[in-house]
């Protein structure tokens, strides 16, 4: 039997009995119960005996444990006493040896001072000997042999080290000044042969002089001498060229760049070879004679056409880009212990490199303006006899202007990227202003001819040459405005990359501060072209005035017609159907009905005929109503005739897809309301 079941916390006697009862099988229940009870009683007796034995053992072992704990407590107390005694002895020893240690420390400091004094005396003697020897060398002349220069380098290095040892000496400042004086004299003596060696690019001699300068702690002076020698050598090569050009200069400098970097790295042991190269080229570009800017300016003056000038500026940008690409390749090339270049160093080189383009970029505006204005030298513009052909020529110029402006913008980008924008926009404005002046001149000519026609009593209208001339000229203005808007949208979408190399930031390298501000302003606010908008409005008004002129001429005669009054009584009794539209209104109707056919001949797709028809129908109805109101003493027959004319005009207007205006409709209602009253009075 498993007794663990009885020790569980959730033991349930009923469940256990039922489980035991179910496992009895076919055995007699009373016998099974008796056996189970007997077995449980035996288990209980065994547990009781085991508990009694365990209790007896615990009672007998407790005294021994207490005795052992007491003994352990006594041993701990004895150990604590011994530790206290040992601590007191250590404190006594420390007190006894403290004075001895202080004495040893004082002795050691004294020894160090004695050794320092002795070393200083030896260094002072050595310094005096070295200073005398160096003075003798300077008096006799600095040797040029490599072995003697090497000995001199060792001597100079020894003097520098000796001065560092004597830094605590009372006369240290005097010795330092004396050494600087000697070094100045030595540097002045060896600088000419060093520059000569650098000019010849003699690596062995240069290394010997470099060791001498390093011994003096003046390795920086070697880099300065290198810049002088390299600049002089390159300047001589520039002066010796048969033909000076920025392209030749770029190729010369690009060919020298990697060689100079290797020289700086391997011979001069420079920690900043790239920075030294950039400083060299910056100083060189600013000191060349003749200057690259002067060379390019002289070549630009020799250009006989604006196109040649544009080619020169484009080639100039290409030549500069060739050099910039070489420098960028050197800067971005992977190297061990790659140096960090100061932004100011890169910017100064970029400004010096782009100096010719920066100086000549304002010339771009003049050249581009001349190129654009050359397109306006069309022979057709000189033929002023035919109004329509003259307008058509101007329209053709306006339509072709998009291609010209696109070419101008692409050319500007090739020359200076978006940095050319402050110079490109004035050229475009000059071109559009010149074309606007041509448009205004022709507009004045059409307007003058129209006024002369009106003054002479003749009618203009849709069949006159003035109307299509005005329409074509208005279309030219619309095309020019659309072109300017489209170009503006394209140019604004054309942005420089957000992150770019310093040598590619042309806005910073080519533009001055005021031009950079102008660039931002032009990108934010486009030119308004107010004159062009004014020309469009005036031409629109002129075209419509010409179109409706025949109608206006006829309508002006309405108040003076004799048909409105003084009619005899017999004529007044005529029925309405016997009255037909009068001649003046039929002329207007015939003119209006012929307009759709004639308008289609002259209007473009954007100038829908129905717009013109709707406008002229509205104008005709309004002016007709106004003229009718000016008629005095209209009799009954005159009223009938007027109503017949209004009905006729209404039918014509409706046939043209429009309707009479409210003013004319109200007038018709008033006349019809007055007709019966007049009949009764008669």
Q: Any chance you could write out the topology, listing elements then pairs?
A:
Elements: H1 4-7, H2 13-22, H3 29-140, H4 146-165, H5 172-200, H6 203-215, H7 219-239, H8 246-266, H9 273-287, H10 292-301, H11 306-332, H12 343-353, H13 355-374, H14 379-382, H15 387-416, H16 421-455, H17 466-493, H18 506-510, H19 513-524, H20 530-556, H21 569-572, H22 583-602, H23 609-629, H24 636-655, H25 662-681
Q: What does this entry look like structurally?
A:
- The protein has 682 residues and is mainly alpha-helical.
- The protein folds into 3 domains: 138-362, no CATH class; 367-538; 557-681, no CATH class.
- It is 79% helix and 0% strand.
- Helix 7 packs across helix 9 (273-287), helix 8 packs parallel to helix 11 and helix 24 (636-655) packs antiparallel against helix 25 (662-681).
- The longest helix is centred in the N-terminal third of the chain and has 112 residues, at 29-140.
- It is flat and about 160 Å long.
Task: Name a few traits of the molecule.
single chain; 682 residues; mainly alpha
Oligomer designation:
single chain
Radius of gyration: 57 Å
DSSP E strands, number: 0
Mean pLDDT: 82
Report the sheet with the most strands, covering strand number, pairing sense and barrel closure: none
How many domain regions? 3
What structural class do helix, strand and pairing data support?
mainly alpha
Would you kindly provide a brief summary of this structure?
By secondary structure, the chain is mainly alpha-helical.
């Amino acid at each position: 039997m498993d007794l663990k079941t009885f020790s569980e916390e959730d033991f349930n006697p009923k469940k256990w009995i039922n489980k035991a009862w179910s496992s009895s099988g076919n055995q007699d229940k009373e016998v099974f119960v008796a056996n189970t009870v007997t077995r449980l009683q035996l288990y209980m007796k065994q547990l009781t005996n085991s508990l009694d034995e365990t209790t007896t053992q615990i009672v007998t072992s407790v005294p021994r444990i207490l005795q052992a704990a007491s003994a352990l407590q006594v041993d701990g107390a004895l150990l604590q006493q011994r530790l206290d005694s040992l601590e007191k002895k250590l404190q006594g020893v420390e007190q006894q040896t403290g004075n001895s240690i202080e004495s040893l420390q004082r002795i050691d400091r004294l020894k160090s001072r004695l050794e320092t004094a002795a070393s200083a005396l030896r260094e002072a003697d050595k310094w005096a000997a070295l200073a005398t020897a160096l003075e003798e060398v300077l008096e006799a002349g600095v040797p040029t042999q490599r072995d003697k220069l090497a000995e001199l380098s060792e001597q100079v290095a020894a003097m520098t080290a000796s001065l560092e040892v004597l830094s605590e000496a009372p006369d240290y400042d005097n010795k330092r000044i004396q050494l600087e004086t000697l070094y100045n004299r030595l540097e002045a003596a060896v600088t000419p042969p060093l520059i000569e060696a650098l000019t010849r690019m003699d690596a062995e001699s240069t290394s010997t002089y470099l060791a001498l300068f390093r011994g003096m702690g003046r390795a920086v002076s070697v880099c300065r001498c290198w810049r002088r020698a390299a600049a002089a050598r390159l300047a001589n090569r520039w002066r010796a060229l048969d033909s000076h050009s920025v392209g030749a200069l770029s190729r010369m400098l690009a060919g020298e760049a990697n060689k100079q970097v290797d020289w700086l790295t391997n011979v001069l042991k420079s920690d900043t070879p790239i920075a030294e190269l950039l400083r060299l080229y910056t100083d060189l570009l600013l000191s060349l004679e003749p200057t690259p800017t002067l060379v390019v300016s002289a070549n630009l003056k020799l250009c006989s056409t604006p196109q040649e000038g544009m080619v020169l500026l484009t080639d100039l940008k290409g030549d500069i880009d060739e050099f910039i690409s070489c420098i960028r390749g050197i800067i971005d090339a992977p190297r061990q212990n790659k140096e960090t270049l100061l932004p100011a160093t890169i910017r100064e080189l970029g400004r010096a490199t782009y100096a010719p383009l920066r100086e000549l970029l304002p010339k771009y505006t003049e050249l581009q303006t001349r190129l654009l204005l050359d397109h306006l030298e069309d022979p057709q513009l000189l033929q002023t006899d035919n109004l329509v052909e003259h307008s058509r020529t101007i329209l053709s110029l306006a339509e072709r202007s998009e291609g010209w402006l696109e070419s101008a913008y692409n050319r500007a980008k090739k020359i200076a990227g978006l940095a050319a924008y402050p110079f490109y926009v004035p050229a475009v404005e000059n071109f559009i202003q010149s074309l606007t002046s041509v448009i205004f001149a022709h507009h004045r000519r059409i307007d003058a001819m129209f006024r002369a026609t009106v003054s002479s009593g003749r009618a203009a209208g849709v069949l006159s040459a003035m109307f299509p001339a005005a329409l074509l000229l208005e279309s030219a203005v619309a095309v020019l405005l659309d072109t300017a808007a489209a170009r503006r949208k394209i140019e604004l979408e054309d942005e420089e990359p957000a992150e770019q190399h310093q040598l590619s930031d042309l806005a910073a390298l080519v533009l001055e501060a005021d031009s950079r501000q102008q660039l931002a302003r032009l990108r934010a606010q486009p030119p308004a072209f107010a004159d062009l908008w004014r020309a469009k409005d005036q031409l629109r008004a002129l075209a419509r005035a010409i179109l409706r002129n025949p109608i206006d001429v006829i309508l002006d005669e309405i108040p003076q017609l004799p048909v409105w009054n003084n009619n005899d009584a017999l004529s007044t009794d005529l029925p309405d159907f016997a009255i037909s539209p009068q001649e003046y209104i039929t002329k207007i109707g015939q003119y209006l009905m012929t307009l759709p056919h004639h308008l289609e001949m002259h209007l473009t797709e954007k100038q829908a005929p129905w717009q013109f028809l709707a406008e002229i129908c509205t104008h005709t109805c309004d002016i007709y109503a106004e003229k009718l109101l000016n008629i005095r003493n209209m009799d009954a027959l005159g009223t009938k005739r007027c109503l017949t004319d209004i009905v006729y005009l209404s039918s014509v207007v409706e046939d043209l897809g429009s309707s009479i205006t409210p003013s004319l409709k109200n007038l018709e209602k008033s006349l019809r309301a007055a007709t019966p009253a007049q009949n009764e009075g008669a």
